[in-house]
């Protein structure tokens, strides 16, 4: 099957995670992604080869000094034959390097220009790394034990979420068939993902509070529970789940969602006592066949070994494959590009043609 994005060319001027992740998702779907790197290479090459490979597979690398006239001229040539350009840098740098639709429309009025920034193209140049955004948007404050400090997740949730959102905006404009500027900020993405939390405060004045073991604000029981060995995530969202779980665990009462919410502490004591009789893995094997949402807490190595079908090989690296599965299409996972490989290929082709 032809790749869903076959024939789509995207220029990436990306650094570190958010921008490169966005375009890698598009490359997995068949888009041609040209990664424009500065002299010396994109900074994430310095983090490590596996880090770079995990965010840049399937792309082509081209070194351009965008601060030079020659680099700008080559960028204009690329834009002429491309569908989109995606960049994640400070707003002032984006404008200085001419990476906006206003500047690039002269080369191609149908080009889609996606700018990923911390606070928007007009939001200033304050540093906006993932952890800073999580702190600034309230995510860290609502995460962790009630009696403990604010907590950050163990992965870059703001960068990854913004990358996916930017890819969506880019594709929306391509489907619309018109060029233009798309402005996506880490701050706005994270606030958007607080949806029901933000709505509860804006409409009811309800501020989010932390519960032990990451318990859900509305559903009870829906949290982590200690067991005889390991921790179990249990997520009971409606009365049908509760009836099945209560029967398996030997618990009586608390039959409605409203009652369980009103008697949260009692419910949690009873459930905790029941789950202490077995291991997390044992409870998972008992509850899953009943259709009850439950899973033992796994380490990353355990989680990866449990799903070998989603692991792929790209060059010398084993990676997690695309999460987007299109019927009839299997991505071709090419390795991350060598630095400036397009220039070297062009030079080799010129030598061969002259000889």
From TrEMBL:
Keywords: Transferase. One of its GO terms (molecular function) is transferase activity. It comes from the Bacteria. The keyword Ligase does not apply. InterPro entries: CoA-transferase_III_domain, CoA-Trfase_fam_III, CoA-Trfase_III_dom3_sf, CoA-Trfase_III_dom_1_sf. It holds the Pfam family CoA_transf_3. Signal peptide: none annotated. This is CoA transferase. It comes from Mycolicibacterium mageritense (Mycobacterium mageritense). The lineage of its organism: Bacteria, Bacillati, Actinomycetota, Actinomycetes, Mycobacteriales.
């Amino acid at each position: 099957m032809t790749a869903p994005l076959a024939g789509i060319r995207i220029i990436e001027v990306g650094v570190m995670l958010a921008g490169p992740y966005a375009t890698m998702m598009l490359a997995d779907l068949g888009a041609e992604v040209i990664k424009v790197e500065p002299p010396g290479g994109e900074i994430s090459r310095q983090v490590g080869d596996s880090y770079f490979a995990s965010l840049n597979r399937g792309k082509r690398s081209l070194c351009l000094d965008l601060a030079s006239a020659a680099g700008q001229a080559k960028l204009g040539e690329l834009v002429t034959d491309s569908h989109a350009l995606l960049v994640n840098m400070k707003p002032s740098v984006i404008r200085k390097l001419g990476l906006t639709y206003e500047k690039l429309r002269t080369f191609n009025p149908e080009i889609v220009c996606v700018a990923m920034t911390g606070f928007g193209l007009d939001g200033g140049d304050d540093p906006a790394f993932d952890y800073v955004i999580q702190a600034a948007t309230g995510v860290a404050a609502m995460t962790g034990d009630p009696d403990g400090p604010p907590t950050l997740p163990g992965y870059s949730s703001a960068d990854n979420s913004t990358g996916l959102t930017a890819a969506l905006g880019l594709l929306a404009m391509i489907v619309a068939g018109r060029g233009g500027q798309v402005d996506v900020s880490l701050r706005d993405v994270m606030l958007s993902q607080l949806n029901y939390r933000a709505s509860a405060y804006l409409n009811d004045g309800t501020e989010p509070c932390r519960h032990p073991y990451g318990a859900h604000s509305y559903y009870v029981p829906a949290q982590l529970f200690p067991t005889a060995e390991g921790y179990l995530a249990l997520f009971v969202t409606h009365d049908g789940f509760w009836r099945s779980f209560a029967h398996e665990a030997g618990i009586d009462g608390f039959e409605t969602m409203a009652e369980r919410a009103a008697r949260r502490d009692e419910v949690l004591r009873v459930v905790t006592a029941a789950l202490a009789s077995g291991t997390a893995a044992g409870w998972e094997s008992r509850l899953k066949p009943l259709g009850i949402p439950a899973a033992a807490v796994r380490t990353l190595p355990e989680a990866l070994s449990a799903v070998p079908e989603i692991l792929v090989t790209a060059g010398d690296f084993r990676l997690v494959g695309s999460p987007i599965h299109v019927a009839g299409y299997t991505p071709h996972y090419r390795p991350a590009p060598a630095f400036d490989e397009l220039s070297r290929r062009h030079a080799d082709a010129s030598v061969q043609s002259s000889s």
